Amino acid sequence: MNRQVLDIIVIGGGLAGLCNAIHLSKLGKKVLLIEKNEYPKHKVCGEYISNEVVPYLDFLEVNPFDFGAVRINKFQLSTTKSNIISAKLPLGGFGISRYTLDLALAEKAKENGVMILQDTVLDVTFLKDFFQVETKQNSIFTSKIAIGAFGKRSLLDVKMGRNFIQKKSPYLGVKIHVKGNFKEDLVALHNFKGGYCGVSKVENNAINLCYITNYATFKKYKNIADFQEQVVFKNRFLKEIFQNSEAIFEKPLSISQISFETKKPVENHVLMCGDSAGMIHPLCGNGMSMAIQSAQLASKLILNYFNGEIETRKELENQYIRQWNRKFGLRLKAGHFIAMLFRKDTIASVLLQILKKLPFLLPIIIKQTHGKPMKI
Asked: What is the rounded CA–CA span in Å between residue 376 and residue 55?
């Protein structure tokens, strides 16, 4: 049995986990990151990121445009009845696949001296001011700080007895990359009955199509192809994109039991980051940005704890909870509200008509789910 003592253990190697690992190792901390999958790997994800995170990525010394990221500054929204509206994105953003971005971040983490272990965490216990992390490969690691960045839902959520995991999660996500005609500078959100689909370009001229739907709606159909034909293609814009493009993936990726229930940013003394701390509705298109920003929040406070500016673990946890809620609380509420409006066809159609008459309102609504450029 292998035993090691670290400054920080990061559980989960997605955007939040990797950014934490890079930030903390950059400032001299001994970091272990444990991720169950190997890099690179495609994930069900919208793959659009707001430019608000660019200053922080610069600080981490990872430039997404070095890896083919596509600049995006226009937004398009359609209802289930294929009524459409367009707007300029207040901050703009970029498109890049998780396959490429996660790999770039992992390479930077290794360059910084982060130990990346491909393994599955089975349990995390906190005793006498230290964490003990047990993995499937029968390793036990000890650290002063543990960061939970293990995504939307995990067996660890069950192990920790987190409240949200007890509730049914009715959503299913599906993603595919295709080749076809789609404007490079545009991100679109097209609604269909029971869900919505994000469309944007990523590197290598690929188009990312990622949609989320209610599982109760989906299970009425034989398979993904049948569901798309019978439901998704009722939106004429989606029908045109899907039918006039060629699949790059052998088959679509899918993920079930997606939960938008409220989560706690700290659980059993573990600081939660990214989707482990809370998820914004994909309709708002800003989950990747939030994951990256949560890493900066956690890393700064952890470094203050190590250097004595934050004197106790309780103060560290309370500060993280306060800052997380201040930064993301209103965004999450706005995301829930906006998604609720677009689930109701009549309200969505009326809202779109209002936005067409008063187009200046759309950028204001977008700002409710996006922040300002991050300060370093």
From this structure: 7
